Every structure is written in structure tokens, then in C-alpha cells.
Amino acid sequence: MQINQKSDVALYQQIAEAFKAQILSGELKSGDYLPSVRALAADLKLSVVTTLKAYEQLTQEGLISSKAGKGYYVNEQDEEMIREQHIRIVEENLQKALDAAKIANVSDEEVFIILKTLMEV
Question: For residues 40 and 1, what is the distance between their CA atoms, to the nearest angstrom?
Fold first, then answer.
């Protein structure tokens, strides 16, 4: 896992997003245990509070749970929920692209051409 100390994105958010991507891609599967909070903090050279905050965010999103004395593990994922998460990511990225296109005065037609070209690649 790569954490960018100079990023505008909070460290705990970077950790949560990295695990979330692994869960949604199927790299981490239902029942898989995540590294302990302390072990992850040591590996990333961050505070335990930062890693705990990332795990708490993933817990709130329903992606992971904790077992007393065992740590955090990946919850079983609902296929429809995973699809919705991916759609949300696509929407967020498309919105960023549309915002950039607007700033650059790119027409709707040009945006469609760009999108179609990218889809064909």
C-alpha cells in the first residue's frame, strides 16, 4: 500500500480508499483479515489513531467488521452494492472530467467523441 504524505487527501482516507479498492475488486474477499491496526501503522510509519480511523470508516461503510481479539475482517459483499459502488466511482470521475472540460471550453460533442474514443481503446 502506497501512502502519499504530500497529498491533499487525508492519510486515513488514503488507507480506507486503498482497502476499499481491494475489496471492491475482489482482491480482498469475504472473511479475509486485514492487518492489525498496530501492524499497519508500523508498516506505513503512521500513528495507530490514523489507521484506526481508516478502519472505522470502512466499518461505517459496511465493508469490514471487527471480532474481539481477532481484528478486522472483510464482510461478505452484496453484488448489487459492489455494482453501485463502482457506478458511484464512475460518476465521480466523469463529473471531474466534465468540470475540466467546462474550464477548457470543450464542447459536449467533443466530450462525447473523447468518451467514445476511450471506450473503444
Answer: 10
